[in-house]
Amino acid sequence: MRRFPVRHPNFSPADKLLQATTAYGVLRGARCWHDGPDPLPGEEQVLDVLGLDDAEEMAYRALVEVPSYDAAELAERLGCHPLDAARSLAALETLGLAARSSGGTDRYVASPPSVALAALAVQREEALRRAQREIETLTEVYRGTDTDRSVSDVVDVVRGAKAVGQRFVQLQMSAREEVLGFVKSDVAVVPPEENTAEDAAVTRGVRYQVLIERSAFDRPGYFAIASASIQAGEEVRVVPELPIRLLIVDRRIALVPLMSESDRSIGALIVHRSGMLDALLALFDRLWRDGIPLMLGADGKVEGPRLGLPELDARILGLLLAGLTDQAVANQLGLSMRTVQRRVRALMDRVSADTRLQLGFHAARNNWL
Predict the structure, then answer these.
(1) Spatial distance between the Cα atoms of 195 and 105, rounded to a whole number of angstroms
(2) N or C, fewer C-beta in 10 Å, the chain?
(3) Measured between alpha carbons, how far is 254 from 168 in angstroms, rounded to an integer?
(4) CA torsion through residues 90, 96, 98, 104, sign
């Protein structure tokens, strides 16, 4: 076999350090940046979407603040091992985010963020566009088989709380236009305060219509959760009772969580386009028409003080009109039931109402709703 001559170039100090880094990484078996610095004060790691890990992002942020750094100076700045710093500098150079300084081959300067990061962003956007085109292609294939589903194929069974919670999040993350939901009083899948997928969907413009079972407001703090939902732009209505738990996404797929009363095991049905999904949509639309809107303004407060109605009275009136009992209103607002009843009596006297039904009539006529 022919042998090629081997040259032994003169390595710069930085190159020698990088060679040592490679051997160091092999000996350790893995990078140890997690043993090094915490994020710099006031800095949030957000460039991971461009392909940078935490170590590389912190190194780049540090590099843009100075004319140049070598590995030792960067390590001192970030409080990590020089070999880890050298590894990050090499990675930044590969990504085009750093270059060797003309003042010395062992020193690095940051590439302009408006150029280098923008280029990475364009690459990621193109990758996302390719992924989106592939999703659309697979969706068309799926739709072709969706119409041919047999009776046994229109419903998928999900078993276990973890799997149900995962589907609950995935469906909301896939929503493009609207999410319809039934919320019963007891929690079966994900507590409302932990449903971050809902917050993300609302932020990107997905419309939420949620029906809440009246007894849910017996839970302390639930009024604040409902207020925050309406403040974020959701539509919320209250009904005396709901027959099932339900989540419908874009009127194309539904999740029906199920809970066994005997052993408290959790499962769910995923319902695809079919007559069963049509029935669930009809059920939602019917109950939505009958639901009482929870009268909260964009500021998270019950609407109604347009004619000088005190804020507390407006909130009491809004919850009463939603169907809550005096005790439930008191619990949600942190009042005693006697205080609630006294203020309701004062409102009735204000409009010369003998019954609460008459109070509701006057509230509507006086534009308190």
Answers:
(1) 51
(2) N
(3) 10
(4) positive
The one-letter amino acid code at 336 reads S
Q: pLDDT confidence of 369, banded at 50, 70, 90?
A: low
Local structure of 100: helix, strand or coil: strand
The whole-number pLDDT of residue 3 equals 37
Instruction: Quickly state the pLDDT bin for 220 (edges 50, 70, 90).
Output: confident
Residue keyed to tokens 């739709």: 143
Q: What is the pLDDT of residues 118-128, one digit of tens each?
A: 888 888 888 88
Q: How far apart are CA 101 and CA 116, in angstroms?
A: 16
With b for 16 or more beta-carbon neighbours within 10 A and e for fewer, the 166-185 pattern comes to ebbbebbeebeeebbbbbbe
- Give the number of other CB atoms < 10 A from CB of residue 106: 21
Quickly list DSSP for 281-304: HHHHHHHHHHSEE--B-TTSSBS-
Cβ atoms of 295 and 302 closer than 8 Å: yes
Q: Nearest Cα to 71, choosing from 10, 16, 23, 9?
A: 16
Distance CA 166, CA 238 (A): 27
User: How confident is the model over 280-339, as pLDDT tens digits?
Assistant: 999 999 999 888 887 654 344 444 334 457 778 878 887 887 778 888 888 888 888 898
Alpha-carbon gap, residue 169 to 247, rounded angstroms: 11
**Token couple for 12:** 């710069």
Dihedral sign (CA 43, 45, 49, 55): positive
β-strands 155-159, 104-110: how paired?
unpaired
pLDDT at position 149 over 90: no
Spatial separation of the C-alpha atoms in residues 190 and 291, rounded to whole Å = 23
- Which residue, 179, 189, 246, 178, is CA-closest to 212? 246
Hey, how many other C-beta atoms are within 10 angstroms of the C-beta on 63? 22
Q: Is 39 left (phi over 0), alpha (psi -120 to 50) or beta?
A: beta
Task: Give the pLDDT band of residue 261 (cuts 50, 70, 90).
Answer: low
3-state secondary structure of 354: coil
Reported residue count of the chain is: 369
